Amino acid sequence: MKEDMEKVPTTDGLATALALKRVGVRALILEKSDGLRATGAALTLFPNAWTALEALGVAHKLTSLYAPFTKGYITNIVSGAIQDVPFAGNNGSGDGPRTVHRRTLLEALVEELPIDTIRFSSKAISIETHTEEGSSITILRMEDGTIIKAKVLVGCDGVHSVVAQWLGLKAPVHSGRSAVRGLAVFPQGHGLNHEVQQFLDLGIRVGFVPLNDKEFYWFITFKSSPKDEEMIGKPELMLKEVIENFAKHVPQIFLEVVRHSDLSTVTWAPLMFRLPWDLIFGQACKGNITVAGDAMHPMTPDLGQGGCAALEDAVVLSRNIGNSLRNGKILSVEVVGALERYVKERRWRAAGLITGSFLSGWVQQGRSGWLMKFFRDMIFYRFIFGRIVNVIRYDCGKLPSVLDCDTKVD
Fold first, then answer.
1. In the chain, what is the straight-line distance between the N-terminal and C-terminal CA atoms, in Å?
2. Domain 5-67+99-172+274-365 adopts which CATH fold?
3. Which of 225, 232, 239, 274 is deepest in the core (most CB within 10 A)?
4. 36-80, pLDDT tens digit by residue?
5. Rounded Cα distance, 332 and 334, in Å
6. Among residues 322, 327, 326, 318, which one has the least CA distance to residue 290?
7. 253/210 Cα distance (integer angstroms)
């Protein structure tokens, strides 16, 4: 079966498919699971992500549901020092970040796509390329024996991307930290302010963020150990470890949030990232094949930019492809140039986010010696953290004039 564009999804793939639809290119998402996945309870979207969602035409569906944050606090449990984190004004409009349900975001994207865009239970076992009638074609051989031909392949297949491996990008590395995340529900309302709260202890960083007046998204990051593997798929054990071990010195308000967790939303994961120089000097595209989202730039969550950067990717990639169309058609030579421009535009941006996220996490969860405390409290928060946060500011641009979204691009 022949299609025009192929992707391996989650939020990254859905956003990419929608952005391509907006420029008139039909997309087929290959999803190895048997249904729409919503791994992870929620994600925080900063103004750069909302710019991308506006370009995709779905921002209005979410802004009416989730209020922006104007400020947050980071409390050092050992010293008692509290650092104010202002959010308003990062995008020039006064709006701060908003934390949204991951499933709500997925559904907002899916609603804009044709019903046959996603093919579930589809797992590629090999990738090949060859020339057909003067054009480069990618051939995907599927586990069920199906053969799919694509003019462009975009790997949105996550941290352990098969497409990234095929391109020759080096595998992501372990940061030495892991995270547990979840969604807490207070049926009668939690009664707390709409503010971001974070707490730092030696080797521990926790936080909770309200989504609305009844729900909180919470997280905890900690130094990894062999024992972490025992928690995979066992939410009750995860919560027990968080409450009795990892967060035992954290203020009771955080523990109360954790105790209200919806077990179906609680997850554990190691924090992986791609070394920035591997992305800068590595091959992120080859011919008509490239990667986006976590497949290109896995990063630690310390700046909250993993999902935001993936939305940027979707717009930048589709903008370049849309501008390369000739008479509504994808031409092999033109699309190769479009992918090269996309990677050139994204690699330094993504490398900066990877570096800033890792540095932020390393400083905030670093050792407790007086020198590290002095650097963190007197130098990092006062002079460096703001500059790192400024890296978040980014305008991915608008998509070119939309073609007929039902038109098949040959």
1. 14
2. FAD/NAD(P)-binding domain (3.50.50)
3. 274
4. 665 568 999 999 999 999 999 999 999 999 999 988 898 988 878
5. 6
6. 318
7. 13
